[in-house]
């Protein structure tokens, strides 16, 4: 019989591995379960991706100003957030390709991307999309 125990705190529980042989220990950020438990940056990033997805789904023009308005942040903050992925244009390209691929069921759009862009699209952005649902 498997038993799952959730412990929500900022403690190192790695000692359990030695004390309880066979235990599976997984450390997960609380914001993975509840975005409001995340940092201000995590919450704002989540809001930006949600706004982007909302604009895409409603076939509206996707721009930093529209996203900032929906996410209730400044346009400068949207720009700063996208710098992690190489700037606004690269962020927009990756997220558009990912959304198209997720909803079309095709991976053909990934062929036009660099290896780094494919990693972001396949590994990181799906987490953000899943959290937005």
From TrEMBL:
Species per Swiss-Prot/TrEMBL record: Atlanticothrix silvestris CENA357
Name of the protein: Uncharacterized protein
């Amino acid at each position: 019989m498997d038993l799952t125990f959730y412990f929500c705190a900022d403690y190192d529980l790695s000692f359990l591995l030695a004390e309880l042989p066979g235990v599976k220990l997984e450390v997960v950020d609380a914001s993975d379960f509840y975005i409001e438990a995340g940092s201000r940056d995590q919450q704002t990033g989540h809001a930006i991706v949600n706004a982007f997805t909302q604009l895409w789904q409603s076939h509206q023009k996707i721009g930093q100003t529209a996203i900032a308005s929906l996410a209730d942040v400044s346009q400068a903050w949207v720009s700063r957030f996208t710098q992690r992925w190489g700037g606004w244009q690269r962020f927009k390209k990756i997220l558009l390709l990912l959304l198209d691929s997720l909803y079309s069921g095709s991976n053909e759009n990934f062929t036009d991307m660099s290896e780094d862009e494919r990693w972001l699209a396949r590994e990181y952005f799906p987490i953000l999309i899943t959290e937005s649902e």
